[in-house]
Amino acid sequence: MTGLRTLALALAIAAACVGSVGATPLGQGGGAPFPLGRVEHVSSASSDVRVDAAPEQGASAGVAEAPVVGASGGALVINATFDSSITSDPNSAAIEAIINNAVSIFRSLFNDPITVSILFRYATTNPDGSPLPPGALAVSYSAVYAVPWNTYIDALKADAATANDATANASLSASALSTNVVPSSANGRAVGLNTPPAMFANGSVGAVGPYDGIVTLNSNQPFKFTRPPASGMYDGQRSTEHEMDEILGFGSYLNLGGSDLRPQDLFSWSAAGTRNLMASGSRYLTIDSGNANIVGFNQDPSGDFGDWLSGSCPQANPYVQDAFSCTAQASDVTATSPEGINLDVIGYDLITATATTTSLPTTTTTSSTTTTTAPSGSTTTTQPPTTTTSSTTSTSTTTLQITTTTAATSTTTTITVDSSTTTTTLPCPDAGFDGLRCVLHRALHPVECGNATIPRRIQRRLAKASSLIDRGAFASSAKKSREFARKAAKTLKKAIVLTDAATTQGKLSGDCGSAMSGILLEAEQRAQELASAL
Q: For residue 421, what pLDDT is reported?
């Protein structure tokens, strides 16, 4: 079944690739300042043996299962909309259940106060009615924006909230590797940028498109929608999580053409101290300048270059993001899986992440010589979206723990990495929904709070406020924008009360609670002023 994936991941990349679509003014929030486009990803079935396959440790035909996660979680909200292709299907209840399970997993892991909107389909066609690529398990469409290098990198650094982030940010290039970075709309908002949802149900992108992306499961494939998956059947939840990862931000520039990097490409290396941004030789995900190999990137051009290198079936270490999936195997995104770590370092905030633990497969690809090159381009300097003016420098020692697991044994290696991190924060925009969104984003990341866990009641209020601000920014009229701004102000006022109570009860330190209350008060005042001005 070699070549199940079409060569052009971009069914419409020529038209949808960032740079070929002009900047589109969006809504009442003053417009998105970045060019808008669309990317497509396809996940495929695995062949039994491929020359590019990474030799994996051990062998197991077993199913890797994770418990279904409950409804509780962090501030991240994922709004799942079910297309009629699902609701009219005889198996709709089971399909919706695995999608809701996948949503719950992401919500349980990440603490970003944003709302991500995804349309889910179960069909044999793409959203525009064209046939799915032959052999595809699932397809995702994502809205993306071309963000100037410094703008994205500064926002990513300012968003740091975990030990993984501190290590990863120390590995970022001191100079621009491309003119722009191309995050998905959801990923941009995760780091505080103005990258609103922009996709319509037919997969086109433009002003006030309600979705960040669309996931289509191929109804011609033998999916099983309960665990464990049976022999000869693919795990529906694993494929769903795979495509959701891509809407959240996964993907490589290598599939798009051009030179502008995707966020994943920032962490693509071939050896300690040696980046590899080419589709030849070996590439692997690492967050410490190439020292610890977390997982290999796929180098087979019939698969996504942002997916993981896949072994022959059954895979000893089946991961959600494997470029080629096997039947009768399941897996989920976790805080210590390669997917969880990668989402963390491109801007999503793991609720708990003090050390990194993941499997470490060997990643040998081809005999080609690895050439370290990087796209070149001009650098645009802008201010990152933050709320206070300060500058801090800290030196820390990060312990990176790598757990290598085979079918019967587990070996742990601890690597100590010394890093110096400088964080500079600059003022948010003075007015408008952009400034309000910027201030709210910083409410969960005051320097005074460190890695403290914010009580869930506060997280829920902030998530609600974030949703109201997004709806206000892209409402169809000034009147509706004003209503959403007023509701956001009321929600923020309640969040301040909850923050003060948490501080009094000792759930937040005095410095942390005071800083959060101050930021939230600023956000509430901005919301009130915005409502009055509209």
A: 32
